[in-house]
Design goal:
This protein is α+β, with helices and mostly antiparallel strands. About 50% of the residues lie in helices and about 15% in strands. It has two domains: about 180 residues, no CATH class; about 110 residues, Butyryl-CoA Dehydrogenase, subunit A, domain 2, CATH 2.40.110.10.
Length: about 300
């Protein structure tokens, strides 16, 4: 059993309120340094959150560290994929161009960069020049430190749910980096696709840990807390599993379906809290749980197809 889950069942339930990334980040970084895995980082960060927004941010950072374990401990990181036209490979118009001196230059723009201008390291997805044979240009991921010349982060309006978590539009106008800043391999297969799986597992872990703390603090039914723990135990295994394996996606789909049931049950429990600010935040933020639902269903369907085909 994951030791962090035991902590979530025993630790004091009072946590300080946080209104900004600047207030959330030092506590998450401190807790993450004590964790033995990305799943523990998500659990401990979610348990320490006073609202869904910081649970989400905790799971997001943990997922990035599951994807790239060598990320600096002090880096508020963000994966920058989405552009005006979307986030599929054909939607990526940001260009990474090799230069004669061994560097690369990057031109393009990204939308909805999580944690926005509070980020310190961007993982930017861009396309290399098209191949001579007409094949699709390979996508790469570049590590771009915030503050690099040619990089701008433009704050976007608050979202209607989890508004505490900021987002930014990223503009890259001739950003110049050493070629070593590019991660090896195809950026879409190595980073973008697995991150979607890792993000779902880690963010859900963090939100359920947040609910477990609230359940303990508010004296909610033991059966509800038990189901939270059971789902988190499954997600801990998923968080450490290979993201490209069909069985991972099948198990994740089941765990996410159970999480949706728990969110609905939590909504009923929160409704009984009336005008409690935490209850009002939960009702406001519940729309987060429906984001990308169609993509998750398609991912599970593809996993079942691969299993039937013997992949």
């Amino acid at each position: 059993m994951n030791p962090a889950l035991d902590t979530c069942l025993r630790a004091p339930t009072a946590v300080p309120p946080r209104a900004s990334v600047a207030e959330w980040w030092p506590r998450w970084r401190s807790g993450a340094a004590q964790a033995a895995s990305s799943a523990e980082q998500a659990l401990l960060g979610g348990f320490d959150a006073d609202r869904v927004g910081w649970a989400f941010a905790s799971g997001y950072q943990a997922a990035l560290r599951a994807l790239l374990p060598d990320l600096p401990a002090d880096a508020v990181a963000a994966l920058c994929v989405t552009e005006e036209s979307g986030n599929r490979p054909r939607d990526i118009h940001t260009r990474i161009t090799p230069e004669a001196d061994g560097s690369v230059s990057i031109h393009g723009a990204k939308r909805w960069t999580t944690l926005g201008a509070d980020s310190s390291l961007l993982l930017v997805v861009g396309a290399l020049p098209p191949a001579a044979d007409g094949a699709r240009a390979m996508l790469k991921v570049a590590r771009v430190p915030v503050g690099t010349p040619g990089l701008q982060l433009l704050t976007m309006p608050e979202t209607r749910f989890v508004p505490e978590v900021p987002h930014a539009r990223v503009v890259l106008d001739g950003v110049r980096l050493d070629a070593a800043a590019l991660l090896p391999g195809d950026g879409y297969e190595r980073c973008v696709k697995p991150f979607r799986t890792l993000e779902d597992a880690h963010v859900t872990l963090a939100v359920l840990a947040y609910l477990l703390r609230e359940a303990r603090q508010r004296g909610w039914p033991a059966g509800f807390a038990e189901r939270l723990c059971a789902t988190m135990a499954v997600l801990c295994d998923v968080a450490g599993a290979a993201a490209g394996v069909p069985v991972t996606h099948v198990v994740l789909a089941g765990a996410l379906a159970q999480a949706q049931t728990l969110y609905a049950e939590a909504g009923t429990l929160w409704a009984a809290a009336g005008d409690d600010p935490a209850a009002q935040r939960w009702q406001r933020d519940a729309a987060l749980f429906d984001v990308a639902g169609s993509a998750r269903s398609q991912r599970a369907a593809r996993a079942w197809e691969r299993l039937r085909d013997g992949a």
